[in-house]
């Protein structure tokens, strides 16, 4: 199907290197998870200075991470009210009692103060923090809270590959983090994801969980109940080539983000605290003064050929959660009402940026 927009919201950058490595895998005769996936995991582990287990998407990565950390039905799990649905639906599907926390309106991330208010009064098993659009949360503060209140910290870094907190890559810390390699992400394997952890026991469990509970593929001996979350060597071959290009990809995204911030005068943007030493800009959020102005730009830009999108509907307002919309989450609501997300992708050129800026200009006057 032809894209109706001149400037898409996102676009994967698949080049001749990926095509040629795909061809090699096809010719090798081994297409499912094998040596190439192992090689991809080695490269990712080096990149993140951690131990990485790949899976078939970011949602599976979160499922495996929660199971590896022993989540049980009825356990209390905190998640931000403003996030992609998977952060919420996965613990919910595993039977957790999920508690929503409002986010900070300037960073779009959960802040430690709001989390502390809940963990100090309730027995919370896990807190899932999310690096929204690739902007890291305040990791030191959350790690400290996790020790003080004895909860498992999981980082949903699905959007944050390549981002850095105090000059250290997200995914290289002691706690478990998950990433997504969906087509809109910084690197893609079409669908794909991984879990990174510095805890050897967790890594061992993850290995087992992703492969129907067995320790060794090719054998039919299963020690725990699980499903199939494996990726394929075809996808890992794409991933290996993508990872070689990540520095250039992140530079392009950063250039586009800078271009938006410099030129869009009537908008404000995600606030970047000092502890964020690299934002990988999986998405780019812009905030209008109010909902009316936002809606005007949303419609006009889309009519003008730019695929601008609405932000996530907060979890408390999702149709599936009609019982929750009595609770007030004012910041999530404001973000939803006033923001939009602009096109940003690895191969986006200056002329594409200029087209978006000109389209904004046409509708400002
Ligand atoms: C914050 C967040 N968590 C989880 C996911 C799930 O990843 P996937 O789409 O690869 O299943 C995404 C994907 O977009 C995400 O943005």
From TrEMBL:
Recorded superkingdom: Archaea
CDD domains registered for this protein in UniProt: AHBA_syn (cd00616)
InterPro entries: DegT/StrS_aminotransferase (IPR000653), PyrdxlP-dep_Trfase (IPR015424), PyrdxlP-dep_Trfase_major (IPR015421), PyrdxlP-dep_Trfase_small (IPR015422)
Sorted UniProt keywords: Aminotransferase, Pyridoxal phosphate, Transferase
E.C. code: 2.6.1.87
Gene Ontology MF: a single term: UDP-4-amino-4-deoxy-L-arabinose aminotransferase
GO aspect biological process, one term: polysaccharide biosynthetic process
Family: Belongs to the DegT/DnrJ/EryC1 family.
Name the record gives this protein: UDP-4-amino-4-deoxy-L-arabinose--oxoglutarate aminotransferase protein
Species whose genome carries this gene: Marine Group I thaumarchaeote SCGC AAA799-P11
